[in-house]
Amino acid sequence: MGDETGVRETSFLKDLFQMIKELPYKSLLMGVLVTTIFLSLIQIVIADYLRVLMDSLVGENDFSIAMLGIMVLIFAVELGLVYFRTLASEKYSEKNLKYLRKASTDQLMDTSVEEVEKAHSGDFISKLTNDLNKIQTFTKERVHNFIFVPLTAILSMAYLLYLNWILTLISVAMIPVILVVSNRIGKPIGKKTTEYSEAMGRINTMNTEYIKGIEVVKAFHLKDRLMKKYTPEIEDSVKKDTAVARSKAFINSLSGIVSILPFFITFGFGAYFISIGELTLGGLIAFTNLLNYLSFPLSQIPMLIGNGKGDLAAYQRVKSVISLAEERRGGKVRAFDENLRSVKNFDEHSSRRTDLSSAEEVIAIRNLSFTYPGAAASSLKNISFSIKKNQQIALVGESGSGKTTLSKLLLGFYPVEPGKIEIGGKDLSEWDLKALRQNIAFVPQEVYLFPGDVAENIRYGKPEAGEEGIILAAKKAYADGFIKSLDQGYHTVVGELGDRVSGGQKQRISLARAFIKDSDIVLLDEATSALDNESESLIQQALEQELQKKTAIIIAHRLSTIKEADEIVVMQDGEIVGKGSHQQLIRNNGYYRSLYQKQMENPQGEAI
Residue 64 sits in which domain range? Predict the structure, then answer.
């Protein structure tokens, strides 16, 4: 997934209106904008009333206590409007932040594995933290200023022209020139801010990798080597951030000139107009007050636009996550409701599964080839075999032979082409992917535990499972004993990535998660790789009992786990180079025999 948003340069107003159009909670935004309009109008009312009040104090017209009361009332109304706008802005910002977080996370979970693997997790983290924070600031503190600043400036200009049009034109003569210059400087801020965000994404990527690989970093003394890669990225991010700061600093200095220059001009010429009777003292005070609402907003527009471009660029980066292509949904085969005996939409929290009993072959793979996107060599080449109901098939072969790739294709993580995979007699393309996966209990090669407790991690296999079901699944996986020995038993928190339990314990929790799912198809990708011989023996007994009435594909690195399989499929360099029972392959397949001999010479090793 590329970040084409990093180089795009489109109309600022077009991007602003597009964002406002796409974000929900428009009633709150309307409340913010309407209140902002009234606040702009009230500035003019206050200025005019100050003029009247000041002229009354110097004897230009009659003064009354009621005038002070009206002024207090006007300020009270302004205070109420500011309170309402602040509250509405906060709600608009927080609700949209919640919406964007949920939408982006939902989309990440709904998109295909193929799409997610195009970018590093650190880049996603940057988008879902740094960029979301920028959007929050924009919607809370800046969006209303795109109404308040220009509207107040326009109304102030109109009122100033009414008071003394000559003094107005003199006071603002320099503003357009400075605005043009500062706008030119502010134009690239959006691009520079995006470049900085992307640099931070790369840094987050490295941080994520270093934290996850901290044991390898220390074991192989990689600190100096990794810092040589990390330091240039840090320096690059500082350089990009400095470029943004330099542009903003220059605009700020120009803004200062824009805001103060008109006042020097106003006081000089204002004194002259008072002396000739063209302006009163109250009028000059009102003029000076409103000039602030003209010069200051105008001076802030370039900075407002510059910051806005950076915030809108952040929105585009978050939007790129929300716009990720979803996995294929629907299909002719969805969840099967045994009560209604009909096809219904799949419910991810339901235990209902599709009836596979009528199919002669539960899994059939025909002339399947596959190449990972961007890879030069094929991972699978013309693979064909089938599995009948309650049959156990083992896949063996050295690393890189295509075993794990095949498991990914069976789960629908990547599109199948050329060739085909049939599940329950139906082509994979006809399946709703969620319904497909509900029929498969999967134990991956790299066990992943969520940062909750043990019971919660087992329950992910069947969300509606109760405590008895969780304990039964753990007993089947021979995990109940060590779980009870933990400090909090089944309520022990496993930590980030399950780092508070051992590799073998994680694997048994993962097996329990698969067992509690009780699916018709079981897919084991080296499910005993992290177990010692004693634990493996126990797990082997558990698998033999659990798989009696299951259709299973077992990917294994130890021959002891697959010798009793109904059929062994031998793979080498993405191709099938042998099929048969253990005894048949020992007699007739030299490659399998060599793997077996390696295993016998080193029983503790991983020959396959």
Answer: 4-322
